[in-house]
């Protein structure tokens, strides 16, 4: 039962020995399942992108027409614009808020930290769909919680048609996403803050640096890896935004008035699974994948350049 | 508990495993058996129909000795799920009622893919192709074959506050063209109580075009698609119509106001904010149901024509009955369809319950259609609609119907925006350009549909 | 000016006062607490509203922001009608469907997938961590690369595959393609790396089989990661929407997020019904999270924070 006893000279400690079939057996479920449900669909996705289909039934070869169609379709361009705008807002509004919250929580005792961490993270437990459903009701003109609170605090917004006025739809989506994800990213920043070298911070403070300078020149650079990771994750997540606008704008299948809430994945869902064209859906998927890939590469590059400074 | 704490993966995975096994067992035990299914399942999306059919079905069940299940489903979810289920081969109802404009959704791709039973030959065999209003078949046809049974003819009239109109000294029998209607409308639509806000309008007109624009376009002979399925709404005629419509809703002498839907419409009519309302047959019943206080004060008149002697009605909406190819009892389903739609014993009562004019011409001779309606000042509503039915314009269906409607709306709204900022100067050119753009977008989609129609499995 | 505005202004004034009095420490602590408190209120308010809405009668849903004043509590304003409506059977092609069936479907989907993933991912993660074998580098590279592909890309062809296999409209069709995740393998790999090799070698000398080492030695040592992964995986699958929405057709097979999204359109006139469903659907993830918070947080961040 002990397997082959190797005849090689004993390896230095810490290096495990070759074992017969064990690793292959252990990894075989992964390999089989991945081959079947990842590799095969991946190849199909390449093929399908050049076809037009009637659901999972008939298909017709259209060559590059899917991509030509996408880039001449004003609805797709709108989706691209909306999604990019959202990604931008995510990085430049949501993440600073998460960071600020993490800083606030960090300077407290453990119990306090734990409690507030739980509170701020709680929206994430319930998933985009349930949050979207809840907020679609909270944004009701005149009666919704959001409208009422805005009216009480800011004397504006009681009649604001968050979900039907094209100018407000993106704002509503952004607000909901802030509620949902600020706490999530805060967790990462909080964990990263724990690992920052406090002696460095002390030294800077003794040198007379202001709290903001300490943050910008000492704390943030030591959290570099996490920040880059969170930014990339945030952008990748933003480009796949789907369930939130779909449930907020359920009356128009996630499009919103004037397509103001349309995102790339909502467009994909509509084209592939409502109109039934799996080929066009694959083409949209490829566009999204390429965008995500490019942006991730750029960000990793920028991260490395910053590192070299 | 020793076992639990000795479970290699820990307590949480252990309890999850327990829950997984228990719930899996429960799910397997409680899953449904296909034999429990009734002989026929029929889904509808309108409450009024649901109530009417619920009363009619027991007799059919008795006469044929079968079990029919009637279901009510929300339209939005029904449409998408039904088509996906058809394409994937999963459980579908045997018959389904659907709204106009949705047939295209179910008739994409090659004809072998269609999930619907081709009814053309059955209609001919039963002589129904002659007994139903011809113009309604196009709505439910694709590639020259009929795939759904027309439920109705929906001729459009105008419902108006007879008491207020008479008080203003207007004789509606003289309003036989739109020019005359607008002229009177301009005198009527004004600020009555001197507070600077217009509080009486002639006609309910949607601000973004939508159905009220489409009703007028159809009346003029315009179409979204022609008989061959080509995009057909970017015409000079439609451009002129849009210009007229912008003038009536946004011009300095506008006569149109958007009342919304449901409660706000009732309020508008009760207050006299708007004198004339679009009233296809089904809506005439809705008014009576939602604004009972106006009984005796309302009346109906045919649409003013666009030119003297021209068409005095249009069409709005429509319901059709599809039978799925997958059904196990196609002949029985066909019998049920005919029974529900064309059994003359039922149709009289159905009319009184819904005001809807059935597509079966013979039915219009039933006594119920001559009943005076106190709500509409004792007019014989059935006769009025029946008289207009032969003139109802045909509507052609297409897989890109949705896109065409959205396209027209978008072109209209862009032109209206332009008017608000720039006035009449260059308006017609802008309208033509916007229409052409919208039509081009739809044509691009339609081209893809044509390619798909020749697809193979 | 109303109460809320006065309160906010008062807080600000107190802060400024403390600062100008030279009590900078106290001022910043005060500011910290105030901001965190306000943040907590903003985050918790929607949940509170939901909890109140569940019990409000349809007629007063929009009358009161949260609950009616105690004087107005009665059968007419607060009742369990929402629950009654929610639990009523709804007709479908295959008969009446009840709410508990959707809960059951979600439970089966989430727990079965999680349990299977724990097993397969821990096996794979251990293999990657503690073995050297031919093809390991290639495999690792492949896995890293595959994580960069967004799953939406694969959904359309996967759907066609599932239809062709006859697994569409069944929970099996959802669970089987989702039985293993690369992310999970990497998480377990991370955890298994910290198991001392000496222990493994000693167990081998004792005559323990490879699988025995994995099961009896290594797994108990990585229980925190297994617990974290439990929660991560369960949450992800309980709240999943896109794939279940596409793969499931029959009414009786739907999971909670899909059904609640449907109800959103069906119950526009009686919002309390789907809001109650939403509230109920939030309970299992909350319960699991309370039990496993600590492990969850450390598991989540172990992939990101390089010490």
Structural class of chain B: alpha/beta
Q: Which value, in Å, is the CA radius of gyration of chain C?
A: 26 Å
Count of folded domains of chain B: 2
Work out the largest interface and the residue count of each chain: A-C, 99 and 97 residues
CATH topology of the largest domain in chain B: D-Maltodextrin-Binding Protein, domain 2
The major β-sheet of chain B equals:
5 strands, mixed
- How many helices of chain B does DSSP assign? 18
Question: What does this entry show, briefly?
Answer:
The complex is a heterotrimer of chains A (309), B (457) and C (307). Chain A has 309 residues and is an all-alpha fold.
Question: How would you describe the overall organization of this protein?
Answer:
The complex is a heterotrimer of chains A (309), B (457) and C (307). Chain A has 13 helices and two strands. The mean pLDDT of chain A is 86. Chain A is 70% helix and 2% strand. Chain A is globular. Chain A has a domain at 75-129 and 168-308: MetI-like (MetI-like fold, Orthogonal Bundle). Chain A has a two-stranded antiparallel sheet. Chain A has helices spanning 22-48, 65-72, 74-106, 110-121, 127-138, 145-154, 166-194, 198-206, 211-222, 224-239, 243-248, 264-274, 278-308; strands at 51-53, 59-61. Chain B folds into two domains: 40-154 and 317-391, Periplasmic binding protein-like II (D-Maltodextrin-Binding Protein, domain 2, 3-Layer(aba) Sandwich); 156-315 and 398-452, Periplasmic binding protein-like II (D-Maltodextrin-Binding Protein, domain 2, 3-Layer(aba) Sandwich), CATH 3.40.190.10. The longest helix of chain B is centred in the C-terminal third of the chain and has 27 residues, at 427-453. Helices cover 47% and strands 12% of the residues of chain B. Chain B is an alpha/beta fold. With 307 residues, chain C is mostly helical. Chain C is built from 14 helices and two strands. In chain C, strand 1 (90-92) and strand 2 (95-97) form a beta hairpin. In chain C, helix 2 crosses helix 14 (271-302), helix 4 (99-130) packs across helix 8 and helix 9 (197-205) packs antiparallel against helix 10 (210-221). The longest helix of chain C is centred in the N-terminal third of the chain and has 32 residues, at 24-55. At the A-C interface, helix 1, helix 3, helix 4, helix 5 and helix 6 of A face helix 1, helix 2, helix 4, helix 5 and helix 6 of C.
